[in-house]
Amino acid sequence: xxxxxxxxxxxxxxxxxxxxxxxxxxxxxxxxxxxxxxxxxxxxxxxxxxxxxxxxxxxxxxxxxxxxxxxxxxxxxxxxxxxxxxxxxxxxxxxxxxxxxxxxxxxxxxxxxxxxxxxxxxxxxxxxxxxxxxxxxxxxxxxxxxxxxxxxxxxxxxxxxxxxxxxxxxxxxxxxxxxxxxxxxxxxxxxxxxxxxxxxxxxxxxxxxxxxxxxxxxxxxxxxxxxxxxxxxxxxxxxxxxxxxxxxxxxxxxxxxxxxxxxxxxxxxxxxxxxxxxxxxxxxxxxxxxxxxxxxxxxxxxxxxxxxxxxxxxxxxxxxxxxxxxxxxxxxxxxxxxxxxxxxxxxxxxxxxxxxxxxxxxxxxxxxxxxxxxxxxxxxxxxxxxxxxxxxxxxxxxxxxxxxxxxxxxxxxxxxxxxxxxxxxxxxxxxxxxxxxxxxxxxxxxxxxxxxxxxxxxxxxxxxxxxxxxxxxxxxxxxxxxxxxxxxxxxxxxxxxxxxxxxxxxxxxxxxxxxxxxxxxxxxxxxxxxxxxxxxxxxxxxxxxxxxxxxxxxxxxxxxxxxxxxxxxxxxxxxxxxxxxxxxxxxxxxxxxxxxxxxxxxxxxxxxxxxxxxxxxxxxxxxxxxxxxxxxxxxxxxxxxxxxxxxxxxxxxxxxxxxxxxxxxxxxxxxxxxxxxxxxxxxxxxxxxxxxxxxxxxxxxxxxxxxxxxxxxxxxxxxxxxxxxxxxxxxxxxxxxxxxxxxxxxxxxxxxxxxxxxxxxxxxxxxxxxxxxxxxxxxxxxxxxxxxxxxxxxxxxxxxxxxxxxxxxxx
Length: 811
Prior knowledge:
Helices cover 44% and strands 12% of the residues. The protein has 29 helices and 21 strands.
């Protein structure tokens, strides 16, 4: 193997130790330990602790609070402790864990050579990675990261001997080879891993950007090899360690399960048991014949946990059905809005965008369009003028002098009267037409368009996406009005705003996807093709797009094309959505520590308050994922903790719909769950610390302070009510699927990547089998199942015995 191939192979091997990181403006939730999912959970967290220094389990304090609050079933805990050889009583074990916890080490503040490497490297990373926020850009970026740093190094006084001719070879591979000349090649993966995990945030971002490509990457390319070439060269110049002094090893004994793992699994089993029993009890209702008559309307919300709250309140207002479907509505698209030159991939990261969808003027509302264009042009011109005046050396001081009073009044209003600011913005929005009122998505296939992705969709593709939605959710009846409701958030002064938007749309609002699917389903040619496939949509059914604002719980309907025959239906929907909003907002306001009587006013204040560090809780609290008909959960208050995906096994004879859910939404929800989990158990390493001291950098991420590693996870305010009081209960995902266990087994057998997650304990799976009297079976590893009843009996009656009933695909 030549040197170039050896470097590439070693870098690829080492890169598994850092998780992919997306830019903050398109925040994508992901497991920070994704590279370790091929090993048991407790081994993975131990390995990550060696490499990254992060804790992998909740603190003893968190376990004690859960124990004292009754969230951990004593019988379940006793059974699990006994199974792993721990025979002391729970209180004694908590005391032991507290004593064994590493004391806070004495912090050595002396600067090391490695610290100086980090300081120089992150300075140039921030300059190179900047996405349009810097007034003066780093030179030579189009040549690539290594070439750009090589060009500026001779002018950087912080780099010793940076101007020497032989310090920076022409190619990054040559630079790596020069530094590692005395190290055998079998050490290279360990050395690369050491340097990648020194700054896992920046390394993870480079890894993701190089893999995904895109406009910034193609214009200003960077690779992990270039990154390592710069870092190793700097380490050599600063005389910093090239290889770890005590390299982390994989040969530690793994036959014993840590005590923390046992407590965690008992806590999860206690939560899961309540969820499974509630779903099992409701399962017989699925078999009951449905009442006559169409529902007044049907809503399709994202599977997001926040949708669980609004769905309950919508259903309480009238004869409405609600369903759950992944929030990109099955359309793998790249979207470009009417008044923007920026396009975004509005689909999950595990799905490649296949269609380019743009907004185009409808031509039916020229006056509204002109008003919209005027406002958009004034807004853009004003923004450019202000930026120019603030950054121009000749005008900056005079600008501050002349505008200071106005700015002061505006800041005072935003600080002291955020509710009034929200009202003012709301009133301004009402005077200017919304984008959906003046344009529509261009969904028709355009063979003449010259773009990276195909423009629009063919008729066959439209039919497939519509059919996939209805077949996956198991629909056999349609109301007069069907609403596809995407979701978005609304916050002020919040670098993490995209983390509150739709994860299934890669951290973007879901409204555009909802509009595309509604447009498709209103197409008469599509309906005719669907009828040929047995999907009968009544002539009087109208599909409407909408968007649920998860910060204020307002649900906006994009009903501009609704015929007059449905005017009264829409008016009633709007009234009922306002009622549902009031109930949901009151519930969420109470969860955020405000009085429930504050309700709508409180959530509006949080949306407009530029000093508010917690505009909403996002997906904090997530712990469960239920796949099945709404009948299973419609009478349950799941407290916004469960993802809900509609599925009816009776309409899925070949199991294709179930397979799509298991390999898609199940994997994505596991990503979300593990990110919240790890950011909660160690906010400093796997999260991003406190928002109060965040420093946004380059429109790609945040620092703590004025430099250092790019922080990759959620901030403290998204996870905890106080520093030592988690709001998010750090539990791994408990999934419950309502389907024959044999069918689920067949799907798992065909997808090793999902089975690996289950076998290694990254999430759990329980199947409620409608063909076996709605009995529940827990996945037990290697495609075997244990009956829920036997497992409960084992814990409550005979803790020393093992559950004996197993189900397989032949059961």
